[in-house]
Design goal:
- The protein is of the alpha/beta class and about 325 residues long.
- It has twelve helices and 14 strands.
- Helices cover about 30% and strands about 25% of the residues.
- The strands form two sheets. A seven-stranded mixed sheet has the order 6-5-4-3-2-1-14.
- The protein is globular.
- The protein starts with a helix and ends with a strand.
Amino acid sequence: MTESAVSVRRQAAAAARHVHPNRFVTLALMALVGCSTEESARATTTESARLDCSRQALALQVLGSGGPMIDDERASSGYVIWVQGESRLLIDAGGGIFQRFSQSSARLESLDAIALSHLHVDHSADLIALLKGGYFIGRTRALPVIGPSGSDLFPSTDAYLRALLDSTTGAYRYLSGYIEGGRGWFQLVPRVVDASSATPDLVFDRNGLQLQAVGVGHGHVPALGFVVTVSGRKIAFTGDQDGQSEAFVALARDADVLVAHHAIPETDDTALRALHMTPSAIGDLAAGIVPSRLVLSHHMQRALERRAQGEQAIRRRYQGPLDYANDLDCFVVE
């Protein structure tokens, strides 16, 4: 066995302690069949980076890289922003991120805010699970929960929290202390952003971390795109959108990392095109923003099955670095 193959096998063994078994199998097979060192490095770079995510000056960690389907062994949408080793911001809280949050070593105590791009289940279902876990941590400072305004089908973010936690009518009224605060509870402070507005809103600015939000098109669903700025570095999140928001493109321009949601294939001709970007639309968006790195997440199996076709469509418009996110992947922002 060559020295490079031994190195790959060692990397695969180390990664196995932190990744889903199916992904370890892929890495191990690559070592056994003698793939090139360059290919091996590409496959394990993110695995290695994951181990150091909480030690970086600035990093984005993907908690959930999947969508609402039960066919991909991924958690739904969720991301953590790490700053100087602290988990400062949670963006989205879809099903499954409760477990990933723990696996990432993120701490609810250190969060400055939670931001929800919209209130579809695959972006918000684990919020209540995190809050239940928060009862045991001894946190006292208030926690802002930032999210969109409502519509006839969706509550506003403050109404959503009341529907969960109101002391009389809430589905989880036994946790109503989060609404009232005091007596051992930390208080949730809702911040509602007008999802119909094309004017960016600075929704959080504290201790060197800024979060801006702007309304984006997601069919009839009130939805937001986000841009996080730390020390002049920008991490942009499309959220679920149709890619038609010029305001989001302007806000996110020259981002160091652009996280784009990859839910439908290029050939999709259904009404989903009004909700999500095709790969060519992702490419158009990236071409307008010109990020230093494009990270595709919120994968749906139907898009992954046509990955080659989709990537070709993206590459006709955007030629920069491109990554496909998996749960717990970490992207260091230099």
